[in-house]
Design goal:
- The complex is a heterodimer of chains A (125) and B (337).
- Chain A is an all-alpha fold and 125 residues long.
- Chain A has 5 helices and no strands.
- In chain A, α1 packs antiparallel against α2, α2 packs across α3 and α2 runs antiparallel to α4.
- A 5-stranded antiparallel sheet of chain B has the order 1-2-3-5-4, sandwiched between helices.
- Chain B has 337 residues and is of the alpha+beta class.
- The termini of chain B are far apart.
- Classes of the chains: A mainly alpha (125), B alpha+beta (337).
- The interface between A and B is medium-sized, with 38 and 32 residues.
């Protein structure tokens, strides 16, 4: 167990510093890259918040789909090989739902304002 | 550093005096933001009366290159294509001068600098383009019809890349990245199972017909730029690339570049003699285009890990997931309710 502030709180305050204190004093390319840097920290923050639970669920679904144990990386590679060979398809029970879940998780972390993501959320209501 | 200290000025001025009637020299030479495979410079040719606004496209540092990842046409080829497209009624900046070795500027060409906007967010949001926006989808269709109709016998040598070759090229790039993307695998598998037949008629294809390469004014589409990725391929490729959600910039319900409907694009295309649009093949190419952009985002990760350590380069890898959700919406849409 680590001390406080939490990693999420630290990343959050650094992003806030870049946006509200550093960026206003920068111009041109430096200002642009500062904005990109703050956005990158937002990704880190959301990953710290979302990934632990989502990855555990992903691993559980992969074990079910592939009927074996392994790491996230190993099982993802095996799933990829199965899809490439055509052994696992959209007709395979659970595949489409699994792909939707991993992708919705990625977007919730990477780009939660992306039009395709917000539309997909509306469509799933 | 002022323009007068740029070693490009003297040889470029000589070339312009040689190649453009009435030119007395050059002024206002300025490097524009450009890619790694080509340099783009803005400048004016001075004359006894008004200056002529021009663009120089040349190989980086003036050297000869193979272009980006072997898929790019050379600069002489690009100049020849722009001239052919112009003659066929495609809006392009007239080519004023193709440079040769003796000019000392390197491989490249000089064309007119067309005024207008290429930045999607301005085109899609600024009031200045309000009257242009409703016309753009149809105009894009008309332009594509004209460029697809260009007689193949008149073209310079170009890469031939039908659907299966495009799939294979991006599949290899994806495998090189060596990170598992189950959604990309699903898309590659679908593409392999649904590729148009090898007998599909191929034409000249622009290869990068989207925001950034379309010069737009308040009066509509003014010029089609950047012919670097032109090749011989399925004409539906161009009609679909501009419909990829990544180029809609949030306007998801306007599939054509965020400004128009597919029906307008297709109607403009067919009215200008582009032949019957095949919506199924267009969808195939939209899936491939979406996947292509996703794979390109992962190549940025490879560039970052290889030492190109810019923040922008690093974060673009986290945009490949945008294309994964677009691919799922295309291939495995979820039912409502």
């Amino acid at each position: 167990m680590q001390d406080q502030p939490t990693a999420i709180e630290l990343v959050d305050i650094v992003a806030d510093f870049i946006r509200n204190h550093a960026m206003p004093q920068l111009q041109g390319h430096a200002a642009f890259h500062a904005r990109v840097a703050a956005n990158a920290l937002d990704i880190v923050k959301r990953e710290l918040e979302i990934a632990p639970k989502a990855n555990a669920e992903e691993l559980g679904r992969l074990r079910g789909l592939l009927r074996r144990d392994g790491t996230l990386d190993e099982l993802n590679r095996e799933l990829c090989a199965d899809i490439e060979r055509g052994d696992v398809t959209l007709d395979t029970p659970g595949l489409a739902e699994h792909l939707w879940q991993i992708t919705l998780t990625k977007l919730a972390i990477d780009q939660p304002n992306y039009s395709g993501y917000t539309r997909a959320l509306e469509e799933s209501l | 550093m002022g323009a007068e200290t740029n070693p490009l000025v003297a040889p470029l001025a000589d070339a312009v005096r040689r190649g453009i009637a009435g030119a007395t020299g050059i002024d206002n030479l300025k490097r524009l933001s450009g890619g790694a495979s080509q340099e783009t410079w803005a400048f004016d040719a001075t004359t006894e009366s008004t200056a002529i606004p021009l663009i120089l496209r040349r190989a980086p540092g003036g050297t000869r290159t193979q272009g980006r990842s072997g898929t790019a046409a050379g600069l002489e080829t690009e100049a020849a294509l722009i001239q052919l497209a112009g003659a066929a009624g495609v809006a392009v900046p007239p080519v004023r001068l193709v440079l040769d070795e003796a000019d000392g500027v390197g491989q490249g060409f000089v064309m007119d600098r067309i005024e207008g906007e290429t930045i999607a967010r301005k085109i899609l949001r600024d009031a200045e383009f309000a009257e242009a926006r409703p016309m753009l989808a149809r105009q894009c269709g008309e332009m594509l019809a004209r460029l697809h109709k260009i007689d193949k016998a008149t073209l310079p040598p170009l890469r031939v890349s039908p659907a299966r070759a495009e799939i294979e090229q991006y599949f290899q790039t994806y495998k090189t990245h060596d990170h598992p993307h189950p959604v990309f695998e699903l898309a590659f598998r679908w593409l392999k199972d649904n590729a148009p037949p090898d007998t599909t008629e191929l034409t000249l294809v622009h290869g990068d017909f989207r925001h950034g390469n379309l010069m737009i004014g308040p009066d509509g589409l003014r010029a089609v730029l950047d012919w670097e990725l032109a090749h011989i391929g399925d004409p539906m490729e161009d009609l679909a690339w501009i419909c990829v959600n990544s180029w809609r910039f949030g306007n998801i319900d306007n599939p054509v570049g965020g400004f128009g409907k597919r029906e307008e694009l297709f109607a403009g295309y067919e009215a200008a003699g582009g032949g019957k649009v095949d919506p199924d093949r267009a969808k195939f190419w939209e899936v491939l285009g979406t996947l292509k952009w996703g794979v390109m985002c992962t190549t940025m990760v490879m560039a970052f890990k290889a030492g190109d350590r810019s923040v922008e380069r690093a974060t673009i890898g986290r945009r490949s997931s945008e294309t994964e959700i677009d691919l799922l919406r295309l291939l495995a849409p979820r039912k409502k309710g």
